[in-house]
Specification:
The chain contains five helices and eight strands, in the order αβαββαβαβββαβ. It has a single domain (23-153), classed as Alpha-Beta Complex (YbaK protein). It has 161 residues and is of the alpha/beta class. A hairpin with a 5-residue loop joins strand 6 (125-129) and strand 7 (135-140). A five-stranded mixed β-sheet has the order 4-2-3-5-8. A three-stranded antiparallel β-sheet has the order 1-7-6. 27% of the residues lie in helices and 25% in strands. The longest helix has 11 residues, at 7-17.
């Protein structure tokens, strides 16, 4: 019986196949963006927060700086949708095999369209949980964008002051 590759293995395989440079950090399990930034020793805004949402009848992945929140009114207006809600924990597990907080910003791994907030492009290096609460990946935003090719737009509220 063949084992199914983990999400972490799928991410590293994807990045290696594109000759992308990245770093992996093993750390104590973290469950919030603030905990992740602290254990990584990075800014909160460099965290690529990935949220699974249901937009009308389709699940999608929204990626934004970890210090920002999803701008639901802006998303509905930009995508011309009537309904938008966060996926339930069970839906997230069914779609990704992962628990909330460990989802990487690669919707392509789960056949989910990806919408990335333009605020992520302000970060030279981004950091994210790689399918595991105790493992993070760090890579340039430019490499992320070229590998994942997300739809860029204004999907997050303005950063806090």
């Amino acid at each position: 019986m063949t084992s199914v590759p983990s999400v972490f293995d799928r991410i590293t395989e994807l990045l290696n196949s594109q000759s992308v440079s990245f770093d992996v950090l093993e750390h104590t399990p973290v469950f919030t963006s603030e905990e992740a930034a602290a254990v990584r020793g990075t800014s909160l805004s460099s965290g690529a927060k990935a949220l699974v949402c249901k937009v009308d009848q389709q699940f999608s992945l929204f990626v934004m700086p970890a210090d920002r929140r999803l701008a639901t009114k802006e998303v509905k207006k930009t995508l011309k949708n009537r309904r938008l809600r966060f996926a339930t924990k069970d839906e997230v597990v069914d779609l990704t095999g992962l628990t909330p907080g460990s989802i990487p910003p690669f919707g392509s791994l789960f056949s989910l369209p990806v919408y990335c907030d333009e605020g992520m492009a302000l970060e030279t290096v981004i950091n994210f949980n790689a399918g595991d609460h105790a493992r993070s990946v760090s890579m340039t935003f430019g490499d992320y964008r070229s590998v994942e090719n997300p739809t860029m737009g204004s999907f997050a509220d303005p950063p806090p002051h």
